[in-house]
Amino acid sequence: MVIFPSGLQDPSVTLPADCRCVQELDLSSLVQDGGLVIACDSSGTIRAQGSASGTSAVFWARRGDEILVSDRQETLFRRTRPEVSRDELVIRLTEAQMDFPFSEGIIWTGVSMVHPGNWLRITADGRVDEVSWWRTPDPIDAVESLSPVLHDALVEVIDSLVDSTDLLSMDLSGGLDSTTLVYIARQCSMDDINTLFFRTADPANHDHFWSDRAARDVRSTHKICDYVSMMVEENWDRFSEDLFAWMPEGPSDDARYLALADEIGRLYENSKSVAHVNGHGGDELFAAMPAMAWSMAHSHVRHGLRDVFSWSQVNKFRWSATLQHVRRHEGPVSDLLRIARGVSARASDMFVEGARWVPAMRLPKYLTNEARDNFSKRALQYAERADLMLHHDRTSHQVRGATLYHGTLVRRTEQMLPSGSGVRLVSPYLDDRVVAIAMRLRIEDRFRADVIKPLLAAARPENMPIDYFQRHDKGEYSFETFVAFSSSRDRIRSLFSEGSVLVDMGLIDPDVLNQELSAYSPDGLVYEDLLRVEMVERWLRSFSATR
């Protein structure tokens, strides 16, 4: 038996004495640090495995008679020189890229990704298939039983950084997820903690009060950056030309982390080993989810349905809307077929839509009919998959789908870090052990909570006051979207006046695009579309320059 771990702090492996084939291996502990593990046994069978959350993933492709396996799409691209997938490119022009199964799309034709939670099996005669090693836990445990286990798991993740890094850097947004991790780091007796906060220009956003308070409590070296200065729209002169190199997995909304990744790399360019800790995945694991009322109504919890109607009344949802929500019985295939038929405008009542396995998609007006056909084609392809239901409970399905999206986001952001910076990203809430614990929370404890994120509140360290979880406001950054677009409108118009790869491909209508650039969007969604199409256009130009 031979095992090749990559990206691991301790590559030593202890195998059971009677272990003779790769199917018998438990490699879960080896992929916690974001590594790809490849094992080969005497029969010639190869096993390749990444993490269950997708922070590390397995990609593979064929080159003639060869099967190539890597943890980076860029490696396979350089060896097979595939084409850009038109269908996937259209997905990247829309918000669909954030929702499972669209979030698992690959930009390169001929390159495949192993679904996180599965491992890739390659037999000696060249057969390739996937084998499941991780399943979404059932939500059956109470807060009281899970909180000490969750606390210990988070401490274990943070504590492991003490010996493996020279410096600990942490996001400290003022939100619950990052703040909890900072207090845990202090509990772990970490003396030298660097924290990072991004200040918004929105006077209604009070996150800075909570961030400053936590930084004082844990006595961290606290750095404050201007949020707008970290937006990629303000930094295209730095990233546009080499955007393909910065984003080897293709254009995506993850571009918003380009400036942040570059800033972190610059901050610690003289440090040998730095772990930068973030709170990705915390909202979805611990907070309310759109399908929560559906799950409560369909559970066997006493008075569950009564509580749902009482809750909807307090939140001023119509009774008819509540009935529509809880009576929804279609499966994910039905949702995808509905999307493929062109039912793509999001309903105004998101409460009703919230119980869907795959949410309805809002497509930009400037997409051509050909692009819409590409979108429908991809939806139909996904409808043929057998693994669309991540769990039979809709809330668990949504939580699992969201953690997969964040795992992808973290993986892509790590690829943006400057080469040789010595920085690695650590996402404790996406650690497979933490995800498995958090997803066991029963629906009644999530639904009937007296505080925000009840499980995280119960698992918080003793040195963290409970009033963080009793906030009545939550920081958000839509204000910056309006600011960014107001300064971007002329730049986007100028960019497309020079000609366009997307127009030449027949995917966007330049006349409609110009109309949208002059339109007003009260919710800012049209502005997000236009900033997204600019990013995709710049990526395609950068990619074309490398051909």
UniProtKB/TrEMBL annotation:
Transmembrane segments: none annotated. Keywords: Amino-acid biosynthesis, Asparagine biosynthesis. GO terms for molecular function: asparagine synthase (glutamine-hydrolyzing) activity. GO terms for biological process: asparagine biosynthetic process. It is an enzyme of class 6 (ligase). Residues 152-541 form the Asparagine synthetase domain. It catalyses: L-aspartate + L-glutamine + ATP + H2O = L-asparagine + L-glutamate + AMP + diphosphate + H(+). Pathway: Amino-acid biosynthesis; L-asparagine biosynthesis; L-asparagine from L-aspartate (L-Gln route): step 1/1. Pfam families: Asn_synthase. It comes from the Bacteria. The keyword Amino-acid biosynthesis applies. Its EC number is 6.3.5.4. InterPro entries: Asn_synthase (IPR001962), ASN_synthetase/amidase (IPR051786), Rossmann-like_a/b/a_fold (IPR014729). PANTHER family: ASPARAGINE SYNTHETASE, ASPARAGINE SYNTHETASE (GLUTAMINE-HYDROLYZING). This is asparagine synthase (glutamine-hydrolyzing).
